[in-house]
Design brief:
The chain has a single domain, classed as HesB-like domain (Hypothetical Protein Aq_1857, Chain: A). Helices cover 12% and strands 43% of the residues. It contains 2 helices and 9 strands. The chain has helices spanning 22-32, 84-87; strands at residues 19-20, 40-48, 52-60, 67-72, 75-80, 91-97, 100-106, 110-113, 119-122. The strands form 2 sheets. A 6-stranded mixed β-sheet has the order 4-5-2-3-9-8. The longest helix has 11 residues, at 22-32. This is Fe-S cluster assembly scaffold SufA. Belongs to the HesB/IscA family. Residues 18-118 form the Core domain. It comes from Atlantibacter subterraneus.
Length: 125
């Protein structure tokens, strides 16, 4: 029996994109303001944690060739094309929880999260 598999090419998809709440946009602007050459923040993912994937934030001085740019209220969020199948449609928020302030990710693709909220899992379509 011949089984044919197709390669997944993220460039072939129409993405919903990512959004920033006003609080998240303000915090991204604060993080990049006054830092010479700083363009924005990159949101990626990595395999980690008990649920499968974790979010990774990094500053961007030079975008990667496969980065997609989402800009809102002057804040720039760069996302690697390879991460889009896992985080497309995500709203990025910045919240205060007790004494902590942190980015929160409202990801419609996340099927489950670990108890501490540090990692998430997705289910293949």
């Amino acid at each position: 029996m011949d089984v044919q598999t197709d390669n997944f090419d993220p460039k072939e998809f129409a993405w919903q994109g990512l959004t920033l709440t006003p609080e998240a946009a303000e915090h991204v602007r604060k993080l990049t303001a006054g830092q010479e050459g700083m363009l924005g923040i990159r949101l990626g993912i990595k395999q980690t944690g008990c649920a499968g994937f974790g979010y990774v934030l990094d500053t961007v001085k030079e975008p990667h060739k496969d980065d997609l740019l989402f800009e809102q209220d002057g804040a720039r969020l760069y996302v690697p094309l390879s991460a889009m199948p896992f985080i497309d449609g995500t709203e990025v928020d910045y919240v205060r929880e007790g004494l902590n302030q942190l980015f929160k990710f409202h990801n419609p693709k996340a099927q489950n999260e670990c108890g501490c909220g540090e990692s998430f899992g997705v289910q293949a379509d």
